[in-house]
Amino acid sequence: MGKKLFFILFLSVSFYFQGITQEKWTLQQCVDYGIQHNIQVQQQSLNTKMSQNNYLQTKMSLFPNLNFSGNHNYSEGRTVDPYTNSFSANVSHNDNFSLSSSITLFNGFQLLNTVKQQKLQWLAGLSDIEKAKNDLALNIATAYLQVLFNEENEEINQEQVEINKEQVKRTKTLLEAGSVAEGNLLDAQAQLANAQLQLINADNQVTMSILSLKQLMNLDSIPDFQIYRPEIDNISNEVLLMNIDTIFSEALDFLPQMKSAKLTVSSNEASLAAARGRLSPRIYLSGSYSTGYSDARTRGTYNPIIQPIGYLPSTGETVYGSSFVYIPEKYPFNDQLKDNASKSVSIGISIPIFNNWQTQTQISNAKISVINARLSMQNIRQQIYKDIQQSYTDAIASYKKYQAATKSLIAQKKSFAYMQKKFAVGLINVFDFNTAKNNLFKAKSELLQAKYEYIFKLKILDFYRGQPLTF
């Protein structure tokens, strides 16, 4: 029974992993998985979480603080009890409790501007996360296209091997018929061996490109990794009908690095306003409540008593007088806390007069940070425009190259089909046939390269427009 159960579980697990390995990954699946498992993206998210915590902390600083303190004192020997204000030579215990609070009423709006600065810094961090995701997505898309290119290139090389096999077979037939020399067969076999070598190299390129894609995705648990091959034969030049300024305008609204740059400028401006607030007076309000307990403190009552105090000399009659006797009793803990309570409320002002030029230095540095942030935003803006301009120009060149390569392939296919018929009946030599065959292979390779160059440039332009990286 145990062996049977183990066998069933083994088959279930095998079919499960077989289903995983046979699944072909789309570009969107690769991007989603890569973003989810990328360490840099996770670290950026943690840094942004810290910015969010700092923002929350500065918001809470607008509210009054509240602190409680308490201590228990043990005394032995001659000490002054703080609640009886008398010397005690015995062991005594006393407790002290206090509650205090303070709030800044005005400090040149430093707190408000600091809250604003921290919020903008947190929002900029969120945009930085999106930029990290976009950069990773673009790299994964590039690697994905490279796999597609290498797979199609492998198919072209496989076709070349089949053509060479057919050439060897036909040459043997012609050799047996006495139509060609043996050297033609040796040359055809050499051509076949070279094509097989190129096929092996193409297969290795597929393996290496898949490895690069998996590394970008941080994927190592699926050995038989395959990607989905979309239909991308129908290539459009729609995006090239747009002008660069239109694409640039869309990019400024979409790209997170531009949003982050704008937020960073605003954050530094808020930091400058907070630094200038240090020149203003600070008005604050504070209050406290304190109480305590001592076991040396007692309370009691004075009871009157009548007792003889002397005699009358004349009569000898006893004279009586009255006095009071203090009868102590224990002072309860709760009653002492109530009776020993003290309260205080104070309002104060602090005016900065001279602080060794620290405030002026902070203001000057904050101004420099604002200028630097604006320059960084301008630099990012210029770089985005340059990248779009370069990608647009490259896309046009790639499209023209693709059109020319398409026409060339059509012509080479017709030429090779004609030469193939003539070679089959022995009307041309091996050299002419190989030339036509190599020209066809070159035309296929050039068209494949032009196609993926153009697709890659289009994807970059779509990326700048905020379009999803899909086919």
Provide a brief overview of the structure.
With 471 residues, the protein is of the alpha+beta class. The chain contains 10 helices and 10 strands.
Account of the protein in words:
With 471 residues, the protein is α+β, with helices and mostly antiparallel strands. The chain has a domain at 75-106 and 283-350. Helices cover 63% and strands 18% of the residues. It has 10 helices and 10 strands. Strands 2-5-7-10 form a 4-stranded antiparallel β-sheet, with helices on one face. The longest helix is centred in the N-terminal third of the chain and has 67 residues, at 110-176. It is elongated. The two termini are 51 Å apart.
Question: Radius of gyration, rounded?
Answer: 45 Å
- Kindly name the structural category: alpha+beta
Task: State the total count of DSSP E strands.
Answer: 10
Largest sheet: 4 strands, antiparallel
Percent strand equals 15-25%
Q: Overall 3D geometry?
A: elongated
**Helix share, percent:** 55-70%
Provide tags for this entry.
single chain, disordered N terminus, 471 residues, four-stranded antiparallel beta sheet, alpha+beta
